[in-house]
Design goal:
rod-shaped, 4-stranded antiparallel β-sheet, alpha+beta, 491 residues, two-stranded antiparallel ribbon
């Protein structure tokens, strides 16, 4: 039957006994819970998660990036999840022993899973990790039956959390980095040895500097070689010119004739000259084949033979002196030859040096690619070794920080020692039972009224039949006197 808006009170009074029974039942359940539930003590601790420069010492000395509020919030929530994790709960229970933390579970173990699983579920059910909406403070609270044990459990949980947090966020990987640094050092040593062997084989110290020095030296040698060649050519031309002059100048020079030594030769030459003059005069008068011409010709021939004989004799007997010009030319020739020889040796030396420089440059250019590759490999190996060494030192410092339990999370409030049970809470339980009893009582009234198909009020009749109600007769409960009168009248 439908419930009318104006009949709520009537319906409530109609089913007041059921409502009261439900309400009292809920209150009795709450009272029984308060009476029979074993009290639990609560220990509370607070931690603060630091960020940036306030977290842990940083050996990198680099500028750290600022975290956004969302990043900070995610870090705090991640730390709270670590605190409430399954592994930390198990480690905390194992630290004190299952039989000490939850002896009732050991005495009555579950059948569907292990006692440790049941203990972890109980531990996590009684553990609250609360994070504020705007701050970086984490509140940890734990309920336990043992008043003295509960703060120790919270303290141990925080210690394990700090150790685990440093392992998660600051795992240095020191052993791995030490191995990598060793391998990088070996690669660097191998690359360095290969490069030094290449330099030693080709006698290279600084590739670019040596090429620049060789180019500069080649320029100087080329200029010097040109000057030497010019001087050598000049000396050779001068030498050839002096040799040509020497060939035209006699080495010795006869002394001029003088005194009685050459008088007969002079007389014979005078006589020959007279005969030739007379011969010339006679040719104008006589025939060339005449007897007179034959006689004069015979005299001329005789005079010529006499002159020749006397000249040979005078020449044989004369004293020849060295030609000074010839000697001077020979001295100049010797000096010029020496200069030419002296100029030729630098040309040969400079040409050999220039060829060696060109060959060296060709060798360096031909091996430039291999040298660059070896240098690059050595540089890469050196950079890798430096980077890994820095990371290893950073990891070693972080490992020391972990061993000293230095973490961004810091305890700002130690676990409290409870002085009275925190659970169950009587006032809260009574308030909850009171509200729940009222709600369930109203629900019971509504359910009973929904199942009752009778009319309770005149308004229901008018609402359903859409007809006016002329009169209503309410059922009244009879008192004791009226009930007796009615009983007697019935007899």
């Amino acid at each position: 039957m439908n419930l009318m808006p104006y009949g709520v009170l009537t319906v409530m009074f109609k089913h007041w006994r059921a409502a009261l029974g439900v309400f009292l039942g809920v209150m009795l359940i709450g009272a029984g819970y308060l009476i029979f539930d074993e009290p639990k003590y609560e220990s509370v601790a607070q931690l603060i998660v630091r960020f940036g420069d306030r977290s842990v010492p940083d050996i990198n000395r680099g500028r750290q990036s600022e975290l956004t509020p969302s990043d900070r919030r995610e870090i705090v929530l991640a730390n709270s999840d670590i605190l409430a994790s399954h592994d930390l709960a198990e480690a905390t229970i194992n630290a004190f022993g299952l039989d000490r933390v939850y002896p009732d579970i050991v005495a009555d173990p579950p059948t569907r899973w292990t006692p440790m699983d049941e203990a972890i579920k109980t531990f996590q059910k009684n553990l609250w990790v609360d994070v504020g909406t705007q701050d970086n403070v984490i509140t940890v609270s734990l309920l336990h039956k043992d008043k003295a044990l509960v703060p120790k459990l919270v303290q141990k949980l925080i210690q394990l959390y700090i150790a685990h947090e440093t392992e998660v966020y600051q795992n240095p990987q020191a052993i791995f980095l030490a191995h990598e640094v060793k391998l990088a050092g070996q690669r660097l040593a191998k690359a360095q040895a290969t490069l030094e062997d290449f330099k030693g084989r080709w006698h290279i110290t600084d590739y670019d500097q040596e090429i620049q020095a060789l180019l500069k030296t080649r320029g100087d040698v080329d200029i010097a070689l040109g000057s030497a060649k010019a001087g050598f050519q000049q000396s050779r031309h001068r030498e050839r010119d002096i040799e040509g002059l020497i060939r035209n100048v006699p080495a010795n020079q006869p002394e001029p004739a003088s005194g009685e030594q050459y008088r007969s030769l002079d007389d014979a030459q005078s006589k020959l000259a007279d005969l030739k003059a007379k011969q010339a005069e006679m040719l104008a008068t006589y025939s060339p084949h005449s007897r007179a011409m034959a006689t004069i010709n015979a005299g001329v021939a005789t005079a010529q033979r006499e002159v020749a004989t006397l000249r040979r004799e005078a020449k044989r007997r004369s004293i020849a002196s060295p030609n000074v010009v010839h000697q001077t030319l020979q001295t100049d020739l010797l000096r010029t030859s020496a200069d030419a020889k002296a100029q030729g040796e630098p040309v040969r030396v400079l040409q050999t040096q220039l060829d060696q420089i060109n060959q060296r440059l060709n060798d360096l250019q031909a091996n430039r690619g291999q040298f660059d590759n070896l240098t690059r490999e050595r540089q890469i190996a050196e950079d890798t070794y430096k980077s890994l060494s820095t990371q290893f030192e950073d990891a070693r410092v972080k490992d020391n920080l972990n061993q000293k339990a230095i973490s961004p999370a810091t305890v700002i409030s130690a676990p409290t020692l409870p002085y009275k049970p925190a659970w169950p809470r009587p006032l809260l339980t009574i308030a909850v039972c009171f509200v729940a009893g009222i709600i369930l009582a109203i629900a019971a009234i509504l359910a009973l009224e929904a199942l009752d198909d009778r009319f309770s009020t005149a308004e229901q009749v008018a609402f359903i039949l859409d007809l006016p109600v002329l009169g209503s007769f309410e059922r009244r409960r009879l008192g004791v006197t009226q009930a007796l009168i009615a009983y007697r009248g019935a007899k």
